[in-house]
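Hi, here's the filled form for the chain we discussed.

Project: internal
Contact: R.S.
Residues: 1517
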Amino acid sequence: MVFSWRGGPDSRRLLLSLWLFTIWEAGSGQLHYSVPEEAKHGTFVGRIAQDLGLELAELVPRLFRVASKDRGDLLEVNLQNGILFVNSRIDREALCGRSAECSIHLEVIVDRPLQVFHVEVEVRDINDNPPVFSVKEQKLYISESRMLDSRFLLEGASDADIGANSIVTYRLDSNDYFTLIVNSKNEENKQVELVLRKSLDREDAPEHKLLLTATDGGKPELTGSVQLLVTVLDVNDNAPTFQQSEYEVRILENSDNGTTVIRLNASDRDEGTNSAISYSFNRLVPSMVLEQFSIDTDTGEIIIQGNLDFEQVNVYKIRVDATDKGHPPMAGHCTVLVKVLDENDNVPQVTLTSLSLPVREDAALGTVIALISVSDLDSGANGQVTCSLTPHVPFKLVSTFKNYYSLVLDSALDRETTADYKVVVTARDGGSPSLWATASVSVEVADVNDNAPAFAQPEYTVFVKENNPPGAHIFTVSATDADVQENALVSYSLVERRVGERLLSSFVSVHAESGKVFALQPLDHEELELLQFQVSARDAGVPALGSNVTLQVFVLDENDNAPTLLLSGTEGLGSMATDLIPKSVSAGQVVAKVRAVDSDSGYNAWLSYELQPSVGPRSPFRVGLYTGEISTTRALDELDAPRQRLLVLVKDHGEPALTATATVLVSLVESNQVPKASSQASGRSSVPEVSLVDVNVYLIIAICAVSSLLVLTLLLYTALRCSATPTEGACAPGKPVLVCSSAVGSWSYSQQRRQRVCSGEGPPKANLMAFSPSLPPRPGSEVIGEVQDLNVDHGFQVSRGGDPEGWHLVLSLLIFTVWEVGSGQLHYSIAEEAKHGTFVGRIVQDLDLQLPELVPGALEGASDADVGENAMLTYKLSSNDFFILDIVNKKGKGELPVLVLRKLIDREENPQLKLLLTATDGGKPEFTGSVSLLIQVLDAPDNAPVFDKSVYEVKMSENQENQTLVIWLNATDTDEGINKEVEYSFSSLTPSSIRKKFLINEQTGEIKVNGAIDFEDSNSYEIHVDATDKGHPPMVAHCTVLVEILDENDNAPEIVLTFLSDPVKEDALLGTVIALISVSDRDSGANGQVTCSLTPHVPFKLVSTFKNYYSLVLDSALDRETTADYKVVVTARDGGSPSLWATASVSVEVADVNDNAPAFAQPEYTVFVKENNPPGAHIFTVSATDADVQENALVSYSLVERRVGERLLSSFVSVHAESGKVFALQPLDHEELELLQFQVSARDAGVPALGSNVTLQVFVLDENDNAPVLLGSGTGGADGVFNQLLTRSVDPGHVVTKVRAVDADSGYNAWLSYELQPWPGSTRSPFRVGLYTGEISTTRALDEGDGTRQRLLVLVKDHGEPPLTATVTVLVSLVENGQAPKVSSRSSVGATVPESSLVDVNVYLIIAICAVSSLLVLTLLLYTALRCSSAPTGGVCGPGKPVLVCSSAVGTWSYSQQRQQRVCSGEGPHKTDLMAFSPGLPPCPGSVDGSGEPSVSLDSHEKEKLHYGFTLNINAY
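And the returned structure, exactly as it came back:
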């Protein structure tokens, strides 16, 4: 930047200062400098320090620095002289592209105080970029048929400079074919085109190389060049040609598919696709050839694809076309003559003609079944055929004529044995090796009614319960017939007979179709025990056949008759009988007999007798269970009533049982009073009684016999069942085995099931019956007589054919006639002297040939039916400018006409030509024939497409959606067909960036949006479009589409953050600059005006320092412990409508300052340590927390030194500086030091360091390490021995003496108990000792039996674990009352003084324990009540002083074991000083203090000793 001043330097400096001050106060001014691009390193830009009014000496102290957004270190300031200079290469094109304005924005920042200045450095353009083509070589492909003045678009050069430096001119080097035209709408849009001035010839010059040079308008001029390579494309003007016009090939018939017949080769003088040849069969080739052969379109190989059969066709004529791929395509032709060689490849052929199918099974021998004819297409021995038949069939072949046979019946048929036969006829020729063929004849045997229906067994036994309902189904008979259809249709009927006086049909009936037998009326076992009848089964054949089956129906007894009483020999009325018995009868004498019968049978008729208890309890009679005999059980006496009334119950064994009662009146009389009539009556009745069989006895015998038979049958069946091996095969029918299961000999079948049982082949069996009399009925079981019929008919149907009369004879004659021809060729007949043209036959049609196959050639020639000179033809073509006629002599085919082109045809002038071809024969007179030739001229691609305009201009808004239509282009082509079909595409000159933004429809020419269109990226696009037709070679037209993009407000503001202070110390001053914020908006006008705002409720604010520049400064005090970091969101909003905005998040971290001292969880801790701890034992861990972080939160611990007695505290304990662990340096002794109180200091590592103290109260817990110590008694004695005198007259309970002992321990360990140990040899001691007092007293009065000298052994034991003991021996001397020495009295009196002065320690200890225990219970009850009444609150528990509870029974503190648990009640920190004692619990691990560390470290031996209880410390308030 250059400043121009008037006046001296002083005035210049003053004005500059005033000017800087003025613009700084306004807050909107800035410095401007300019520098050319590509300036060297160190190039002077400006005296920036001086221009900003800064002294050189203050640049370094105030941290003068320069920042640039996205510009790196292009510019730098020399802090020694304050000069802004170029630090690295500045490339204007890299910085700003083709923008007209280019500048570098600098932010100059100085501290103390913080100031921000803005500097703009303009970068000036120089001509440092030559014109550049995108490629080193541009390739153009131009058809040799292109018209003159055709234009071809070239890609122009680009210059990165601006202004005059970017103006480009073009020059083409000298040549004969092309010139250059430049179309300029403006300097920014130049279209360079190559114009064809001379026709191209590919054969003379296949390519042209040109040089295009571009020169810019700068000083000096810079140039760039590109090589133009023009390739001349070929036009298809040469047809393919074969090496020969006709080929002849011989090949064996039956050659494998894929065998190559011949490989043809044609050549084309053109190049590219015009010389690429495709081979195909000519359209005149018949379908028969197409089925047998295929041709490879690429190689010209003719391959066999069908079966070549000499017997069908022995020669093939194939016309092949070789067509190039030019447009229009051109073709060459040739003919391939394939001759097929014969081989013996035909097997005999067998033709079967059925005459009589099916064949009746009673057909007579010699019946003709079928006619068989055989043939072989081969000849000689290969064509001689012999026939044979399948062995073991009832048929034979009979030769009736050459190669004709009859299949006749040779033996009798039986359809039931074999229903059909598969007969195979084999025909074998005489070749070597011979060939054969087979034919299968299925001979079906028709059924004849020669089998009567058959039952599975001749007789069935059926059991039916009496009293059945009328119409009950009692059985199903089933008969099978081996015949089929109506011959197997069986119907059933009864064989009528009389049953007694009634017909059989009044008892039963049978269903004619199903064979079900029904009982028409209820059957009565008592009237009819067995009903035997026959059922007849007859088929529907003619004549009908039938058979009978016998059914034996046993009527099973039901208990439907009650017992009937028989009159006794003694007179009676009804069921009452009277008997007279003398009183002198002896015991067991039969006095009477009750007789009864039952009309039923079996169990239902088996009767039993019971004497009902109608007589007194002292009845002298009884009745036989099965005999009915009434006999005396004892001798009669005077106490028996003279008249006895006996009630006898008669009951059968049916289900349910039926009963009858009989009353017997027995009169007791004297022996001489029995009337003679009784004797007479008895005599009279003896005859019939002897004649009667005792039914009951026989019934019992029958039951036993039948039961034995049943057991024997079951055992035999089981043995056979176990020994039988299961076999496959059919189940042979057999008689059912009937099992008697009734205990009285009658057939009793209470339940029956029938199931189908099949093992192996054969019809299903349904006649197996299993009986289970003793089982209860099951669901689905059938009642007696209702037997389910499970028989299923299995069979098949045979279709019977008719036996037409006489037609087989006619067919035989026809076959014979055709067979006689046998030569396989056509035969015609004609009468002699027939006129010319007489019709003989349609030979071409009969040979299955096509007329076009007969005369192959370019033109179809004429034919003349004459011969010789009359058939010699000459051809003449009508006059025309384009074609002449040539005659080609085809060997064996005569002369054929061929058209030859002599002049090029223009389709646009002559789309078609009509010629006349005339043929004249050589006869006299001449005859002529003519044919019209219609020649269609095919189009060639000689016209390029044409656009409506060469340049299109389009305006569109940015941010258009994809698929939005930009423009619809249209190009037309005057060619036709495929040559006029146009495809649209982007030119190769169109860069990839445009291809990403737009797409073009190849068919319609629609250009649509395909990417994001952004005005800020590019405000215009130049799209080059090609329209290419589908001709060969294709021809192309070009146009240019200029798309101008209109701006919209679519860009949100952009925010750039630059941190100056990160993190920010929490004691930073208000106004401290945290970050610099710059905002920008790519839009313009109101849309580009940006305002900024900040997240509310943060201790920061935004201060505007320049246009779109802000400073983020501290607005209120910070406290890291309250908020360690802030998420500040800066919002930038533009002035558009609707406005757009952007946000940027600023994470401001607050740096820590050491403003918090370490803090302990509570001011004081109580620690319990067992005495005799090992040196260096860990007893506690203190922990302090510091709200600061890093080194400010790094806490170290130390002891606050003081004296404990005569020693320093540090000789007792120490604390680890880092972990806070407290260690006991020497064993502690509870007896010397019960409480050790000291302070631990915690200090952080901040500057300055802060600290705090905590108090530890260490209670040394007692261990049982002191044994009891005995105190001296009033009476002297040796060590552990005391003497005491005692008079014999003392009363029981008298205190003789007292053993005194003390223990240096405390609590339980000092609580002593006394026991009197039994002295060896002493059995009856009169003394005892108090358990806790140690007083020895008498338990009874002393007598003469007590020894004068008593030796007492007293054991003193504490309550420690393990307990420690001491013993004392007390010698008590018993004396009389007068013998007690006075000295003892004195001694006793003297001892009373110290004894009365001593307090009975044990008694007071007990009182103290009781008091403390009561206090403990009261405290716990009070705490529980308060705990239950207070509502639970969340949070931690506040600190408080621990309450120490005494649990020792003797009043001292006993802490033998302690656990500390964390308990929370209410708010405040965790509580850990609640102590609860439980002496009886087993030992547990050391307690845990508030820091999570164990407060007492014990070894395993000490843990075993600590079993009294545990302590739970809780400090709650």
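Let me know if anything looks off before we file it.
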